[in-house]
Amino acid sequence: MSERFDFTHVQVRRARPDDRPRIRQICQQTALRGLPTRLFFEDEEIVSRLFADYYLDYEPESCFVAEVDGQVVGYALACKDTRRYLRVMAWRVVPRLIGRILWKILTLQYRRRSTYRTLWWVLTRSWRELPRESLAAYPAHLHANLDPAVSEMKLVAFKLGMRLADAVITHLRQAGVRGIQGAIAEPEDDENLSLFYRRVYGARVTAVRRFSLWEMFTDKRWYAKMVVIDL
């Protein structure tokens, strides 16, 4: 897959408005640890609205991209105040998404069993399986992903991921933010992501819960982990 990029010119920069389609595309392509949204939910638009649009619309100054040879191959989208994020999601974003989902159910536009299994998990299990941390101590959070073709190149992915994380952490420190949190999902036989944050940024894992959503679509046991970093 590396023939798609020759890595002659690599930079990490703030996102621009014209990066939006590419950021949303990567978001849809990587929802399940590098696997596409359609594997578990056929309405890909929902995922990018949930995990990309808030940051691009309400906090564009905290959005960064990794660009290789003129093409965006990854992003890190940060939020300085998760409480504000939750308010905006609750009052402006989620109601519209619920309306979209109900309309598609009533008009029989959702046809896959995996879609309904995911919706049932959201309704009955998500609130129990997603760990939480104090928003007073760790008010910021981060959402990041890389193009699947880049993720396959482990060393390159590590370097790009570190540069994106450095850009975000520097930005948050300059803004006076003292702590960042994030929930990550890992299979029981792969702790590379949480290990990366622990070794490079001194992160701590403060809570671990069984994560049954990904278990429904893979043959592995998964865990949701709350990772916090003191800035």
What descriptive keywords fit this protein?
alpha+beta; 231 residues; 7-stranded mixed sheet
Write structural notes for this entry.
By secondary structure, this protein is of the alpha+beta class. Helix content is 45%, strand content 23%. It is built from nine helices and seven strands, in the order βααββαααβααβαβαβ. It has a seven-stranded mixed sheet with strand order 1-2-3-4-5-7-6, with helices on both faces. It is globular.
Calculate the terminal CA-CA distance, rounded to whole Å. Answer: 36 Å
Low-confidence stretches: none
Strand-residue proportion: 15-25%
3D shape: globular
Largest pleated sheet: 7 strands, mixed
Task: Give the integer mean of the pLDDT values.
Answer: 91
Total helices: the number is 9
Radius of gyration: 17 Å
The helix fraction, in percent, is 40-55%
Give the strand line-up of the largest sheet: 1-2-3-4-5-7-6
The number of distinct β-strands equals 7
- What is the structural class? alpha+beta
Query: Helix and strand succession?
Result: EHHEEHHHEHHEHEHE
